[in-house]
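hey
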């Protein structure tokens, strides 16, 4: 929480991305409370949906008021979405309303160079589109270091 606060107050960044692990803890609540936008990646696979539903149920029980105040900021993103699932796709993933989709990139299965993760123009365009949908600026052309990162975050 202090690190996030320090980064946010530095004024050096327009957006901050925090990648939290899957075990819901107090740290999640601290980040959620500081975040205006929370993107929760969900897979359309049944085990993933069940884990997400369990995590949400846990948070609602553990922090009823605190989580209730932040839950409205959560946007569920269907990740590894395949166009074969339909052009329009589903607007619901399990019981979760889908705010946006990130495509499946088959080249990532055999990725030998981690720096190539964002080489997919389709993926970068989808990420930039999500930023635009949230009213944030999405730069598909790359960041100052030239590594083609599309960034979303809580601010």
């Amino acid at each position: 929480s202090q690190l996030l606060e320090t980064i946010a107050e530095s004024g050096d960044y327009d957006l901050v991305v925090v990648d939290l692990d899957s075990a819901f803890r107090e740290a999640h609540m601290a980040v959620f409370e500081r975040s205006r936008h929370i993107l929760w990646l969900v897979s359309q696979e049944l085990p993933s949906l069940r884990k997400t539903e369990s995590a949400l149920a846990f948070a609602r029980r553990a922090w009823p008021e605190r989580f209730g105040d932040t839950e409205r900021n959560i946007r569920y993103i269907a990740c590894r979405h395949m166009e074969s699932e339909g052009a329009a796709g589903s607007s619901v993933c399990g019981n979760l309303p889908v705010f946006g989709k990130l495509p499946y990139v088959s080249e990532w299965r055999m990725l030998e160079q981690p720096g190539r993760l964002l080489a997919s123009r389709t993926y970068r365009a989808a990420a930039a589109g999500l930023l635009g949908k949230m009213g944030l600026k999405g730069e598909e052309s790359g960041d100052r270091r030239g590594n083609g990162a599309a960034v979303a975050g809580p601010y």
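The chain has five helices and four strands. The CA atoms of residues 90 and 98 lie 8 Å apart.
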